[in-house]
């Protein structure tokens, strides 16, 4: 499946819009709010990666950076911006016994899958919120 083209300005605008939507959320489901936060953080990190590499489009990226820019894995994205040790994600289990890692969290939110323990999702959301707040300072 072909991916839609997005460039640095798209990622920056998406980060800003999604951060604002998350920060001002007052209606709707918790999972919808969390999904907006996922995409906010993902777009902000991708914008920062492109900024750090002085590129405007994914086609300008080297092979390694292009691979990172095409992931949903928060750990890989954070590693690319030198923040892998600053924010810690813990894996957790769904109501069906599946383990959720950082690259799959958006699916949990999108498909409205319940965690075995809601506290795990709250902690994960708090880490994403910390990243969002940090990104507001650097993007």
Task: Lay out the secondary structure.
Layout: H1 8-23, H2 30-52, H3 63-69, H4 74-80, E1 92-93, E2 99-100, H5 105-110, H6 118-138
Antiparallel strand pairs: 1-2
List keywords for this structure.
single chain; 139 residues; mainly alpha; two-stranded antiparallel sheet; 6 helices; HEPN domain-containing protein
Gist?
This is HEPN domain-containing protein. It is built from six helices and two strands. It is an all-alpha fold.
Broad shape: globular
Mean pLDDT: 95
| Secondary structural class | mainly alpha
**Helix count?**
6
Output the helix-strand order. Answer: HHHHEEHH
Largest sheet composition: 2 strands, antiparallel
Portion of residues within helices = 55-70%
Walk me through this protein's architecture.
The chain is mainly α and 139 residues long. It has one domain (8-138). It has six helices and two strands. The chain has a two-stranded antiparallel ribbon with strand order 1-2. A hairpin with a 5-residue loop joins strand 1 (92-93) and strand 2 (99-100). The radius of gyration is 15 Å and the shape is globular. The model has no long low-confidence stretch (mean pLDDT 95).
């Amino acid at each position: 499946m072909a991916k839609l083209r997005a460039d640095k300005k798209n990622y920056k605008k998406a980060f800003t819009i999604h951060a604002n939507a998350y920060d001002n959320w007052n209606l709707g489901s918790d999972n919808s709010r969390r999904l907006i936060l996922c995409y906010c953080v993902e777009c902000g990190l991708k914008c920062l990666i492109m900024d750090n590499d002085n590129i405007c489009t994914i086609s300008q990226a080297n092979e390694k950076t292009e691979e990172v820019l095409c992931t949903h894995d928060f750990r890989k994205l954070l590693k690319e911006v030198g923040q892998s040790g600053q924010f810690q994600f813990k894996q957790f289990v769904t109501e069906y016994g599946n383990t959720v890692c950082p690259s799959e969290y958006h699916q949990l939110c999108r498909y409205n899958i319940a965690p075995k323990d809601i506290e795990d999702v709250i902690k994960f959301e708090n880490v994403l919120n910390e990243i969002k707040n940090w990104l507001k300072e650097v993007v």
